[in-house]
Amino acid sequence: MMIIFAIYICLLMTITALAFAKLKPKCVSSDRMRAFNRWTWSITVLATLASILFSWPVNIYSMDSLWRPAGAAFNASTVWSFVLLGATVIRYFIFRDQRA
């Protein structure tokens, strides 16, 4: 069962990171895009770490102690994907009509 969680987590995080990297508007100022990307990755990492630190002791006390890391990783990968997919949509709508 842990292998299924690991595959899900790796697949979900990889797909959303690739979607964020590949789906970007054309002809945009590179400085503004780099700044947005830097802030997005910072917020993503902080939200993921916050999810891990919150879910480990609080949300999963009913689970066996061996499943706590899996529950925390599942929560973290979900937060990671939501933040990156949301940032992809926001980046597309903010920068889509701008020219370099």
Question: What is the N-to-C succession of helices and strands?
Answer: HHH
- Which class do the helix and strand fractions yield? mainly alpha
Mean pLDDT across the residues is 82
Query: What is the first-to-last residue Cα distance?
Result: 49 Å
Number of strands: 0
Globally, the shape reads: elongated
Count of the domains: 1
Largest sheet, in brief, is: none
Supply the number of helical segments.
3
Low-pLDDT windows of residues: none
Instruction: Please give the radius of gyration in angstroms.
Output: 16 Å
Portion of residues in beta strands equals under 5%
Roughly what percent helix? over 70%
How would you describe this protein?
This protein is mainly alpha-helical and 100 residues long. It is built from three helices and no strands. The chain has one domain (2-95). 79% of the residues lie in helices and 0% in strands. Helix 1 runs parallel beside helix 3 and helix 2 (30-59) runs antiparallel to helix 3. The mean pLDDT is 82.
What's the short version?
This protein has 3 helices and no strands.
Task: Offer a few descriptive terms.
mainly alpha, single chain, 0% strand, 100 residues
Q: Could you give the topology of this structure?
A:
Elements: H1 2-22, H2 30-59, H3 68-95
Helix pairs in contact: 1-3, 2-3
